[in-house]
What we know:
Layout: H1 3-11, E1 46-51, H2 58-64, H3 66-72, E2 75-80, H4 84-93, E3 100-103, H5 106-116, H6 124-133, H7 136-141, E4 143-144, E5 147-148, E6 151-157, E7 160-163, H8 165-171, H9 179-191, H10 209-232, H11 241-254, E8 290-291, E9 313-316, E10 327-337, H12 342-351, H13 354-366, H14 387-397, E11 402-405, H15 407-410, H16 413-428, H17 433-442
Parallel strand pairs: 1-2, 1-3, 10-11
Antiparallel strand pairs: 3-10, 4-5, 6-10, 7-8, 7-9
Helix pairs in contact: 1-6, 1-12, 2-13, 10-11, 16-17
Amino acid sequence: MSGALGLCLVLAGCGGSNVAGGGGGQAGTGPECAAYTQYGDLSGKTISVYTSIVTPEDQPHIDSYKPFEQCTGAKVVYEGSKEFEAQLPVRVQAGSPPDLAYVPQPGLLATLVRQTGAVKPAPAAVAANVDKNYPETFKSAGSVDGTLYAAPLGSNVKSFVWYSPKTFQAKGYTVPTTWDEMMALSDRIVAAGGKPWCAGINSGEATGWPLTDWLEDVMLRENGPQVYDQWVSHAIPFNSAQVSAALDRVGSVLKNPAYVNGGLGDASSIATTTFQDAGLPILDETCYMHRQANFYAANWPAGTDISENGDVYAFELPPINPAAPQTILVGAEFVAAFSDRPEVQAFQAYLSSPEWANEKAKAGTALGQSGWVSANTGLDPANLASPIDRLTAEILQDQSNTFRFDGSDLMPGAVGSATFWRGMTDWITGQSTRDSLNFIEASWPAQ
């Protein structure tokens, strides 16, 4: 029995009503609702959703709920807040959590599960959708102690380097396919009087996180996914030789005064430059490469041609050892439930389905928004707004790829979103590799 059919039977009432409905009204029964009969007649039911996604990025989410509302009769109440991460635990502890929350890091999900006991395990229909439509890495990130609690929602590829195809073509540069080729290209740009790299890690209270991604990507390329897993789980210490060597390799780029910080200043300016501004010098050729995730697409000025032959595009950060399998760094947010009412489980299942992924993609495209992608293999990349979004979806859907989740998102919060950020900021502003890694290692919670 499929997960969808199982949910239909649990909800006991998959036929809908005879009245064409809308959110909070009566369930619709037209042909456009055929894919939604599995969720049952939820007329008059209300589901609350709490997220950190605020205007204008919230509108495609709200629009993507409309088919579910119209076909089931349920009403979805969306609340976005910039104080989400601080307020969600408060609400949970006060006994008034939302029905569903979009949790931006699996580490926070694990904390909520273990410390509150309030998160509900994913229902069978959600588990079936995850098994069918998502790579194992994403299922693992949504699981705590072997139990699946949350399906992925939006996903991203972090192992990208942004560049200008137009500039590369004009100057005779080619996209590097190995780390050594990338360094040779960097030297060629320097020889021509340019600065090959630009970077910025300033992100308010989250300053430092872009450097954690740099280190994670290099850890994967130098050591492979098994050692990476050991590092993330603290089976090897944070100040081990492997981590030290990886950070020194990052430093060979970002602490090299000949390489950085094109158009923005010297290496010290990396700490004060916002991550949103960091790649923009590519447009005026004062830098040529910027390592950042696919979601950086949202930061280019209106009218920028983001395409294979356009103003900007991205290539995968190349392997250090071309003979070793390439592993791609990814991230996602997850749908956690604090209620197991039938209508909540139904909406959870919808959010883990190909139907929702495609509705969300089309809603974003209709509003001219890019930078959102799902790892759901049922997503049709043609529904996405831009070439970089479609490239990202194709990478996520390629079953030959190996993925690993963002390490700082998996680590305990005291490390991943605290000392790791702080240690990387201190490192880029002059602290030694040894002292920076010792500082982070000393903060790891006792087992």
